[in-house]
Specification:
This is Dihydrodipicolinate reductase. This protein is of the alpha/beta class and 358 residues long. The chain folds into 2 domains: 162 residues, NAD(P)-binding Rossmann-like Domain (Rossmann fold, 3-Layer(aba) Sandwich), CATH 3.40.50.720; 175 residues, Dihydrodipicolinate Reductase, domain 2 (2-Layer Sandwich). 32% of the residues lie in helices and 26% in strands. The strands form 3 sheets. A 7-stranded parallel sheet has the order 3-2-1-4-5-6-15, sandwiched between helices. A 6-stranded mixed sheet has the order 8-11-12-7-13-14. Strands 9-10 form a two-stranded antiparallel ribbon. A hairpin with a 4-residue loop joins β9 and β10.
């Protein structure tokens, strides 16, 4: 590609501030940008990234299919929401038109175990048109490749335990609301926790219907089992509200969360496998109190036991850098919905992204 990899940006919110700048600094070209927010539409992307004028104006998302079909970029970055159903249309547009796409939608890291019908349809279209669709982000490395790399130095594993926390303030209002931030404990129980007070059969029915609401670790556990060759026999999740003893201001929600109300939630996913290895992973997303920070902690129990703790990871920037570093992998991958445990491990890109194409 003589003029560099051509990239489209779908979603011009908080995460795109980094993804678009990182794309440009890695030698790729932004050729289009889309968003549904009228306050963003019409802006040059430089007003979002803070870099020099780019000559690319954010267009309304309703024009995405028409424009993507016309300009045919090499890849489209989708940075909007957290559930596959919410990014389904964007991914289908790319799949229908033979455009590679990467999303940081958390469910998309391994949607086969939570939204198999939607995933299969995207996969079918992508195979027909010869493009690749995938999900990536912070979890790709810090909840996925980091753990399986440590597993490669382990003789026998009995249990994998993980816990990761993040500030919902960093990711936008949709994510904050999805975590129950601002709800009373009664509202949280009715609107969030009640969804998991069901039998295994009822949960599977929701999965088959495409209406299941997975926590982030639900899909990560599926990714880990696929990478490690483990056969899932049962998987459950439980969501518990997080609270603070003091009022907390949320700029994302535009409100002060009173003491005792939900600031977010903890979601614990337990996966049992035929091979006897159990995975217990927990993600805690909430509006942080002043003394709180991101933390990522994993323990592999067995022979030997290994623990890794990362304090204050720059979760937003790491998510966006992983996405941009994955661009060559997605272009190089076979057609279809290809989850990243089937790709090479995420690597640092010193040169322009095009230098890493097959």
């Amino acid at each position: 590609m003589e003029q560099g990899i051509r990239v489209a940006q779908y979603g011009c919110g908080k995460m795109s501030v980094y993804t678009m700048r990182y794309v440009q600094e890695k030698g790729a070209r932004l050729v289009a940008a889309f968003d549904a927010n009228p306050q963003v539409v019409g802006k040059d992307i430089s007003e979002i990234t803070g870099s020099g004028p780019a000559g690319v104006v954010v267009q309304d998302a309703s024009r995405a299919e028409e424009e993507l079909k016309r300009i045919k970029p090499d890849v489209c970055l989708v940075t909007t929401m957290s559930l596959l159903r919410d990014v389904e249309e964007a991914l289908l547009i790319c799949a229908r038109n033979g455009i590679n796409a990467i999303t940081i939608c958390e469910e998309a890291i391994f949607p086969w175990n939570s939204a198999p019908t939607i995933t299969a349809e995207i996969d079918r279209l992508a195979r027909e048109t010869g493009c690749t669709i995938c999900g990536t982000g912070y979890q790709d490395v810090f909840w996925g490749n980091l753990i399986t790399t440590l597993a490669g130095a382990t003789h026998r594993i009995t249990k994998i335990k993980g816990k990761s926390s993040y500030n919902v303030e960093d990711y936008g209002i949709a994510l904050a609301k999805g975590h129950g931030a601002g709800l009373s404990l009664e509202e949280f129980a009715a609107e969030i926790a009640s969804a998991d007070n069901i039998s295994d059969g009822e949960r599977q029915k929701l999965i088959d219907q495409g209406t299941f609401l997975p926590s982030y670790m639900w899909n990560v556990n599926g990714w880990l089992c696929s990478q490690l060759g483990l056969t899932v026999t049962r998987q459950t999740q439980t969501c518990v509200p997080q609270t603070c003893q003091e009022d907390l201001n949320s700029s994302t929600l535009g409100m002060t969360i009173p003491a005792g109300k939900a600031t977010g939630m903890s979601a614990l996913v337990v996966t049992e496998t035929k091979e006897g290895v159990t995975i217990e992973s927990e993600c805690i997303g909430k509006v942080y109190a002043p003394d709180e920070c991101d933390r990522n902690e994993w323990t592999l129990q067995g022979e030997p036991e290994t623990q890794v703790v990362i304090t204050r990871p720059s979760t937003v920037e790491l998510t966006c850098a992983t996405m941009v570093n994955r661009i060559p992998d997605v272009i190089n991958a076979p057609a279809g919905y290809v989850t990243t445990e089937k790709m090479p491990r995420a690597l640092y890109r010193q040169q322009s992204l095009e230098a890493y194409l097959d």
